[in-house]
Each structure stands twice: as structure tokens, then as C-alpha cells.
Amino acid sequence: MNAGRSRSEEDNEGPLLPGGFEDLLEFVPAWVGETAQARWDIRSGHSMAEIRHFYDRILGRADDILKHVEQFPLDALPPPSLRLYQLLLGLAQAAMAVELHNQPRAHNSPWPHYVRIIRGAQPVD
Amino acid sequence: MNEQVTLSSICAADITRKAGLDTGPVPCDPYRSPAYFELERENLFKRAWLCVGRVEQLPEKGSFVTKTIEIWNAPIVITRDKDDRIHSFYNVCAHRGNQVVLPEHGNASRFSCGYHSWTYRNDGLLIGIPDEANFFSVDKKKCGLKPIATAVWEGWIFINHQQEPEVSLETFLGGFGKAFTGMVWGNSNKSIFFEARLNANWKVICDAFAETYHIPCIHPATIGSTFANKINPFSRPISAEFWGPHRQVSTFGNPDYAPAEHAKVERFAYANIDTGNVLGASEKGAMETFLAHKAVNPTRSQHWAVDVTWVFPNFHIDLSPGGFWSHRFWPVSVNSTRWEAEFHIPNAIDARTRFQQELYIARLAEILLEDVTNTERTQRGINSMAHDVMHLQDGEVMIRHSLHHVDKWVKAKTVAEALA
């Protein structure tokens, strides 16, 4: 019986990522950030080796992820597909470290700091 | 090729003298003196028109937003009434001073104070006092929400602390307002919003976004190669405009910028999208009307990147090939400031575009972090009293112009005198 169960409990019983993306399960939930601020925090808190590993694996599947996500309206992604897409969005953060800074965080910038992304882009926080 | 000749054909020279400004060092005291800050509070921030946002943030009749104007020590509420008029009020109950509207935004035709339920219409009128018979002839007409002088220019909402402002918003904006009339403020109904409370004087933070001399140093990885190249290694501005206390500098963009070979994610994100440069988020093709405006890239330079427009005293509007963004710098104390920045982008139509926007946000966050955290180091240095003055170069002309006009307002007896 499912009666009385919350939506999130049901989600928890389903797959974490859509079929065919089991190779990315190692990044769930550590790299799944629900907002741009959360994804910024996640990248900033990882080591360069961890960021590079995430970057390489997600970049290698980026086209597949886009192809999968494009089956659905962006504002109505099923939970496993949303998690998958949030991993791809996390790649944008990983790229800052790998492609720009060559270190986990911006040069000469403190961590933690007070700059906050109060509101990111839409759809998909 | 003689690089010096090429540079002079791109970038205006002697901007500072042409603007009628001195070229000597400028004083540090306005950045650290508590007494000067109090003069700024009374003579500048309580007399100038201050931008608090855009009308799209109040999208419907009944929309409201609440804010705190720290330099006034005032909680305020901005409303759109049933006749689509925009009002601002002190968010303070006439009964015993409690704050009436608590949510940050919402929609309501009336507001009820949480303390004793005095009730106000969204045009400020007091319409209900519970157990009114037990009061001593309170005149309800005189007990509405206290209005704040409010005016709208091109969709931007401005407020003034003076109950009857000495000059209209139109007069205050002067030539700047005329030059920017008819601008297309695309995607202004939504924004990416950044905020930080920083331990630095408000002018230190304004200044950080007012010159490009710092770009190769502070932002070597994030935007260094976007805004400088071999011909213009120190990112000198292309041109400058001044309108009374308001000002604009057009900054240089490297026309040969392309994502580095190793920047695989940047190449993936921008595979089918051209936003002009990495600070823009809207596709260039969609921006034609905006880009055709005379105030955008006013010299029609092929090396144009961004017009940094500083509306006196604490408001920046930046125009780029990919759209516009704005900063507001709210003084809290002599060395603390609340900074807010809003970047306007379209709703993503597909997953790749949304990903490109995420890369845009990620890069912005890095750039802004580099800028604003540097301001705290600057303030500590200024506070040390190691130096009495700062040395500004020609490309830092907006800082000099700002200090000149701040000082004029601080010392002027009337607004007319400050604007003269």
C-alpha cells in the first residue's frame, strides 16, 4: 500500500538516475545540487582530484544527458532525470575549477565567503 | 605594426582632463571617516533619488515588495495599487511603530499590522482600527502609511527621502535620463540575483565595478583574455561620457577572444549560441533593437565590450552585446555595505541553453567573488591610515568623477547647488 506515503518517499524507492546512466551513480547524492548556490558550494568543497574526476565523467556523458533530458519539458522532469540534469549543471561549476582556475576555487578568494546567488535561472533551479 | 598607434585609434586619451577634473591624487578620508559618512547620509543619501528596482518586480495590481534602506534606518514597502500606480511607504504602523508588511514580496490589496490589526490599503490609506471607539478621536486620514516620494523613469523605480524633493527625478537624471530614454530593457521581468554584505565602504565597492584597469590582475583566468589583448594589455576604456553627476565608460573587448582549446565545457555550452561575450546571456540576434540604441556602444566601436553606466550615487547599469545588468550599493555603515546585482536573461528554451546559462552564472559568481572579496582587503588597507591619498589613472576617471560629485553634494547647501 502506498497510501499515506509522501511523494519524496516514493521517489526514494525509484531509481536514483534514469536507466543507462548507472555509471554516474557514484556522484549521487554528493554532486546533486538543487540550486546554483548549492552547486557552487559543492564544487568549492571538493578537492581538485575529485573535481577533475567528476568533470571527466560528466563531460564524457554530456551529449547523452542532453539527449535524455530533451525528451521531457524542462519544468516537468521526472525526479531521476532531474537529478541527472543537476549533475550536468554541476559540470558548469566543475569547469570553473578545471578550465579557468586550475584549482578548486577562484584565486585570492576566501572560503567560506558571503557572496550568495539568491536566485538562479529558470526553469530548473 | 606600431601598437601604440593602434591603441590610440581604439581608446580615447586624456578623458580626465576633458571631463574638467583635476589629475592629482584623491583623498582616502571619504572612504574611512565616520564624520564624512554621516555627511553622506544627511546630504547625499537623504537628498538624491535612489533606485530601488524595476516595475516588473511589481507585475500585477496588488504586487508589493518590502526592503530595508539601511542608510535611512528605514523599512519600506513598495506597492502597485488598483490603478497601477507605484507607491513607496515607510513600512511602519501609525499606531505604535510596528512593521506592517512582513513578507519580502507578495500580492495584497490591504495590509494588516500584526500587532493590533490596524489595516491599510495598498495605496497607504488607513481603513480599519479595531475598537476604534476606545481611542481618543484618532484622525484616520492622517494615520495612513507614511508615503515616500517615488517616481518611475523608464521602468526604474526611484525614491527620495525628502518629503517634497527639491528637484524632480527628471531634473536629477538630466542628460543621462534623456540619453537613455527609449532603451529596451529586455528580460527585465526576471533576473539572476546576487547579494553580499561586505566589510567595505560603499564607494570602495562601487569603484570596484567602475574601471577595467584591474581586469588583467584580478580576473586573469575568468575574463582576462576577454577584456584585454596585446594591443590593449591594460584594458584601457574606449570612451567616456559624463552627464552632471552621472557617468559612463565604454570598455574594451578582445575581438579575437575564443574559448581556449582545453575549455571543453565552454565550447560544449556555447556550441550553438553566440552571446557576444561571456558576460552576456541573451543571444546576440535577439538584441538588435537594444544594440541599435544610441546610448549603447555610443562610439560604435568594433572593440566594444560593456558600457559601465554609473547613475549617481550608488547605482550601476551595465550594457553589453548580450543584454544588461545592474548593481546597487547600499551603505550600511562607514565600512559595511550591502551589495546587490541583477542579471537579466531569457527563459531557457531547451536543456542546452539552460546549461549555457548555468555556465554563465558559474562564471559570473567567480568574477563577482573576485571583485567583492578584494574590496574587503582594500578597505582594511585604507583603514590602516598608511596613506592619505590614492593615485588614479585616466582609465579610472569614473572614480574621480564620483568622488568629486559626492563631495559636492556633501558640501552643498541645496540640491540645486549640488547639481550646478
Q: Approximately how much helix is present in the residues of chain B?
A: 25-40%
Question: What is the residue-mean pLDDT of chain B, rounded to a whole number?
Answer: 93
Task: Give the strand tally of chain A.
Answer: 1
CATH uppermost class of the largest domain in chain B? Alpha Beta
Number of helices of chain A: 4
Strand content of chain A: under 5%
Note the overall shape of chain B. globular
The number of helical elements of chain B comes to 12
User: What is the gyration radius of chain B calculated from CA atoms?
Assistant: 23 Å
Tell me how many strands of chain B there are. Answer: 19
Determine the strand fraction of chain B and express it as a percent band: 15-25%
Structural class of chain A: mainly alpha
- The side-by-side strand order for the widest beta sheet of chain B comes to 2-11-10-5-4-3-6
- CATH architectural grouping of the largest domain in chain B: Alpha-Beta Complex
Low-confidence stretches of chain A: 1-10
What is the domain tally of chain B?
2
What is the CATH homologous superfamily assignment of the largest domain in chain B? Naphthalene 1,2-dioxygenase Alpha Subunit, Chain A, domain 1
And the CATH topology of the largest domain in chain B? Naphthalene 1,2-dioxygenase Alpha Subunit, Chain A, domain 1
Structural class of chain B: alpha+beta
Describe what this molecule looks like in 3D:
The complex is a heterodimer of chains A (125) and B (420). Chain A has helices spanning 7-13, 36-44, 48-69, 79-101, and one strand spanning 116-119. With 125 residues, chain A is mostly helical. Chain A has a domain at 25-101. In chain A, helix 2 (36-44) packs across helix 4 and helix 3 (48-69) crosses helix 4. Chain A is globular and about 40 Å long. The termini of chain A are far apart. The relative contact order of chain A is 0.18. Chain B has 420 residues and is of the alpha+beta class. Chain B has 2 domains: 3-43 and 177-419, Naphthalene 1,2-dioxygenase Alpha Subunit, Chain A, domain 1, CATH 3.90.380.10; 53-164, Rieske Iron-sulfur Protein. In chain B, strand 7 (110-112) and strand 8 form a beta hairpin. In chain B, helix 3 (34-45) crosses helix 11 (397-411). The chains are: A mainly alpha (125), B alpha+beta (420). The A-B interface holds A 36, 39-40, 55, 59, 62, 66, 69-70, 74, 85, 88-89, 91-96, 98-102, 106-110, 113-124 and B 190-198, 218, 220-222, 260, 262-266, 268-269, 345, 347-348, 350-352, 354-355, 357-359, 361-363, 365-366, 368-370, 372-374.
